[in-house]
């Protein structure tokens, strides 16, 4: 009898073309555990009144299928699924992680698949791209597009000198990374301490950035890393070149102005002087929950393949498929002195019995490996983590742990004549925070009692880029103090997000491919 081991089990997924019908392309994942996979079968026995005093053979009457696993938070593990869990198409997701199959030094360009009109419109003079995983080091890093790219073009030309690479590694990617404001001495940066907002002004700047996908609610970074990713270049100047840089959230965009709040301290100066060099605005994908009537609203289901190594007769592999998986909940976990993790949970329609390779789904044998798999730690790779109230320094910033859960309330709909769910229903989108903080600010208790609206954001960064999460409107709860001996007093806090009156969302997620020092 064959035996299959947990450590040998492999998982891959495809985005379904319709509920229960797999797509043509499959992607491998890296689970830390597989907490749920398969169908739970319900059997109803016959139990007639009888002198035999025994039940009779019953029938299979119900089936519940589900899929769940935790994984380390990496750029690939996150962006593979987050659109599905927020039920929204990511802005600029169509220009993220483009596969590049060649590099030429002749025109200094990257070869890509033919660009759609929407993709080509993002590749204009001044567009920044980030190149990763190429064999030649000169081909990696931040690059500036120096020619407007046409629809159906198969190359993207940059200003930097590239090295010919006929066959880059399979994981070589280029991604939209923002915009370089040319001749930035004309740009002004005005900080208003009274409103805790900053304004970047240049004729036509807002119009250009809107065309490139910059959106109110998105978190950006002013200034970019230099070639060695050890310092900041193309930022603003206060006392020294490039000393004004950092993260900020876009509040509004008009033709000439971009207004920010949530600015890092280095951007909060009233006597800023624009440098003689250019200014880089680093941003990538933006995902926020939207109404079902929005053009960005997305219903995405997933199909998972589990490879059971050696399960078949003679030790051959067998494959099982969990189908119709609708995104139920996703949980961010930020534990102390560890790696950040993310746990996914789906509600599905069915899981097939294991089959041999001859019946394996098309394309599954050629599943693509994730290109960005460096984990994000919670010690040195959290750029910021704070609950914000009346100032930009944060109502509370000393977190001991944090768990953030997005819920969709997915549930099965069963009908007569069908075993298992025929449809999956959804509830309201929810955002819940659970955390423990050091009791260093008495105003926290006041905000809980007063049901005061606060904001929370956190930014994680590593060599694969940044993930920024913004909860624009939230109320705090609990507030129970804990008194551990020989330690700081702690507060247990909960948070419940609700629709922000200005942005219209409960959460905004900004993903950038650019690593920061």
**Stretches with pLDDT under 50, minimum 5 residues:** none
Tell me the strand percentage band. Answer: 35-45%
Mean pLDDT: 93
The total count of strands amounts to 32
Q: Summarize the main sheet.
A: 16 strands, antiparallel
Q: How widely separated are the two ends?
A: 54 Å
Strand-helix topology:
Layout: E1 10-15, E2 27-28, E3 36-46, E4 56-72, H1 75-79, H2 82-86, E5 98-104, E6 109-112, H3 117-120, E7 127-132, E8 141-144, E9 155-157, E10 173-181, E11 188-192, E12 197-201, H4 205-211, E13 219-222, E14 224-225, E15 232-233, E16 246-253, E17 257-261, E18 279-282, E19 285-288, E20 301-308, E21 318-334, E22 341-348, E23 350-351, E24 382-388, E25 399-407, E26 411-413, E27 423-425, E28 430-438, H5 443-449, E29 454-462, E30 465-482, E31 490-497, E32 508-512
Structure, described:
This protein is mainly beta and 517 residues long. It has five helices and 32 strands. The longest helix is centred in the middle third of the chain and has 7 residues. The model has no long low-confidence stretch (mean pLDDT 93).
In short:
5% of the residues lie in helices and 41% in strands.
Which key phrases capture this entry?
517 residues; mainly beta; 16-stranded antiparallel sheet; twelve-stranded antiparallel sheet; 5 helices; 32 strands; 41% strand; globular
């Amino acid at each position: 009898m064959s035996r299959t081991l947990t450590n040998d089990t492999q998982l891959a997924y495809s985005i379904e073309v319709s509920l229960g019908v797999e797509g043509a392309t499959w992607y491998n994942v890296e689970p830390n555990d597989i907490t749920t996979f398969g169908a739970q079968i319900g059997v109803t026995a016959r139990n007639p009144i009888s002198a035999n005093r025994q039940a009779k053979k019953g029938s299979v009457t119900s089936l519940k299928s589900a899929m769940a696993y935790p994984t380390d938070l990496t750029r690939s593990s996150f962006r593979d699924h987050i659109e599905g869990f927020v039920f929204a198409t990511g802005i600029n997701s169509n220009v993220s992680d483009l596969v590049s199959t060649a590099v030429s030094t002749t025109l200094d360009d990257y070869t890509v698949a033919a660009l759609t009109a929407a993709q080509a419109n993002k590749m204009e003079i001044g567009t920044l791209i980030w190149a990763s995983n190429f064999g030649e080091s000169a081909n990696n890093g931040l690059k500036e597009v120096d020619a407007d790219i046409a629809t159906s073009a198969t190359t993207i030309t940059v200003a930097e000198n590239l090295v010919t690479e006929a066959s880059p590694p399979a994981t070589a990617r280029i991604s939209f990374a923002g915009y370089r404001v040319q001749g930035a001495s004309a740009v002004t940066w005005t900080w208003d301490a009274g409103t805790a907002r900053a304004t970047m002004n240049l004729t036509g700047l807002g119009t250009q950035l809107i065309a490139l996908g910059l959106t109110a609610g998105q978190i950006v970074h002013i200034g970019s890393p230099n070639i060695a990713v050890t310092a900041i270049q193309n930022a603003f100047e206060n006392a020294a070149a490039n000393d004004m840089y950092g993260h900020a959230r876009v509040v509004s965009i008009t033709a000439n102005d971009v207004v920010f709040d949530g600015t890092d301290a280095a951007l909060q100066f009233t006597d800023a002087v624009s440098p003689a060099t250019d200014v880089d605005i680093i941003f990538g994908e933006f995902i926020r929950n939207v109404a079902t009537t929005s053009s960005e609203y997305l219903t995405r289901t997933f199909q998972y393949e589990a490879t059971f190594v050696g399960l078949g007769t003679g030790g051959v592999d067998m494959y099982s498929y969990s189908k119709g998986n609708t995104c139920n909940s996703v949980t961010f976990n930020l534990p102390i002195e560890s790696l950040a993790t993310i746990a996914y949970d789906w509600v599905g329609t069915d899981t097939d019995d294991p089959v041999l390779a001859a019946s394996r789904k098309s394309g599954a044998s050629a599943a693509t490996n994730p290109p960005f798999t460096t984990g994000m730690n919670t010690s040195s790779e959290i750029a910021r983590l704070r609950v914000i109230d009346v100032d930009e320094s944060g109502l509370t910033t000393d977190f001991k742990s944090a768990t953030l859960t997005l819920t969709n309330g997915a549930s099965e709909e069963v009908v007569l004549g069908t075993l298992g769910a025929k449809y999956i229903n959804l509830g309201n989108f929810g955002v819940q925070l659970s955390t423990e903080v050091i009791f260093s600010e008495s105003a926290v208790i006041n905000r809980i009692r007063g049901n005061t609206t606060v904001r929370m954001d956190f930014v994680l960064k590593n060599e694969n880029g940044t993930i920024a999460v913004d909860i624009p409107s939230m109320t705090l709860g609990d507030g129970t103090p804990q008194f551990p001996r020989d330690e700081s007093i702690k507060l247990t806090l909960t948070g419940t997000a609700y629709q922000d009156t200005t942005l219209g969302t409960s959460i905004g997620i900004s993903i950038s491919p650019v690593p920061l020092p």
